[in-house]
């Protein structure tokens, strides 16, 4: 069921409600907790938006952590394309499906699914603005019933995203053609209070844009014009910018914010800090 005007960045709770029963729409619950990987499924089982499928960050939205040569690819490497397609089809997603992703953390995990769908050329994917809290604030209830969707038939189309690898980022340290933007909290960026990765610090030359700074106090994204102004102070040309974070997840939140701002073409470094710091030969910077 194609749409004249698909949702490609954000969707409000009100607009989702209008279309929640549309057979051409698929809702995905992306809730997760980095410190408690089982928390997302537990929350889903306790109550979710009717019809929503559950996406596990570690198993559905990430791939193997070890490369063929034995090197570490990061804590949440991108899934292999065939595996991603199989997962999306299992959820009932086809080429004409409008996908809506949500979580309970301001979009930090839902944005990963948004980026992955765009990486296989699927534009009709949006993040629920304000997440589950916005849905409930609109007076909508939750269900514990789990859907059993018919298989979808989504196919791979030309990517709407770009990505870079560790070699590209390392080369950039000498030619400085790209602006690296780190989405982690400022203290972790500075190398303080590192509790997730074995090494604290950041990629030399990187700038810090905490992904939560994309949000308003109510958990919804800031307006596009405000995001445009704030990111414009960090990057001159989005096509030469690279978004990274700890493991390639919250960097997608910054990429979504850039898209909302009308700043198109920035790349993702999927391995991010977790891959970068796993190789002691790569330089590390600390402080602001």
UniProtKB/TrEMBL annotation:
SUPFAM superfamilies reported in the protein's UniProt record: Rhodanese/Cell cycle control phosphatase
Q: List, alphabetically, the InterPro entries matched.
A: Rhodanese-like_dom, Rhodanese-like_dom_sf, Thiosulphate_STrfase_CS, TST/MPST-like
User: Domain of life of the organism in this record?
Assistant: Bacteria
What's the protein name?
Sulfurtransferase
Q: Which PANTHER family match?
A: SULFURTRANSFERASE, THIOSULFATE SULFERTANSFERASE
A Pfam family cross-referenced in the UniProt record is Rhodanese
Which GO terms label this protein's molecular function in UniProt? Answer: thiosulfate-cyanide sulfurtransferase activity
Q: Where is the Rhodanese domain?
A: 21-144, 179-285
Q: Which UniProt keywords apply?
A: Repeat, Transferase
């Amino acid at each position: 069921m194609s749409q004249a005007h698909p949702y490609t960045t954000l969707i409000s709770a009100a607009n989702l409600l209008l279309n929640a029963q549309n057979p051409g729409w698929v809702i995905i619950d992306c809730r997760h907790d980095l410190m408690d990987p089982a928390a997302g499924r537990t929350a889903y089982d306790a109550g979710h938006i009717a019809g929503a499928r559950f996406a596990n960050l570690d198993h559905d939205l990430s791939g193997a952590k070890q490369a063929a040569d034995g090197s570490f690819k990061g804590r949440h490497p991108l899934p292999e394309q065939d595996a991603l397609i199989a997962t999306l089809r299992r959820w009932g997603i086809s080429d004409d499906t409008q996908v809506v992703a949500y979580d309970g953390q301001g979009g930090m995990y839902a944005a990963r699914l948004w980026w992955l769908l765009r990486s296989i050329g699927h534009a009709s994917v949006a993040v629920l603005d304000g997440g589950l809290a916005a849905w409930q604030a609109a007076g909508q209830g939750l269900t514990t019933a789990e859907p059993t969707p018919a298989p979808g038939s989504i196919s791979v189309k030309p990517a709407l995203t770009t990505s870079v690898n560790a070699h590209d980022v390392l080369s950039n340290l000498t030619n400085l053609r790209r602006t690296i933007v780190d989405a982690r909290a400022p203290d972790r960026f500075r190398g303080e209070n590192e509790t997730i990765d074995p090494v604290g610090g950041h990629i030399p030359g990187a700038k810090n844009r905490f992904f939560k700074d994309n949000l308003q106090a109510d958990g919804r994204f800031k307006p596009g014009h405000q995001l445009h102004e704030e990111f414009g102070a960090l990057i001159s040309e989005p096509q030469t910018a690279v978004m990274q974070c700890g493991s390639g997840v919250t960097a997608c939140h910054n990429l979504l914010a850039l898209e909302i701002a009308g700043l198109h073409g920035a790349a993702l470094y999927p391995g991010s800090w977790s891959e970068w710091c796993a190789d002691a030969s790569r330089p590390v910077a600390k402080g602001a």
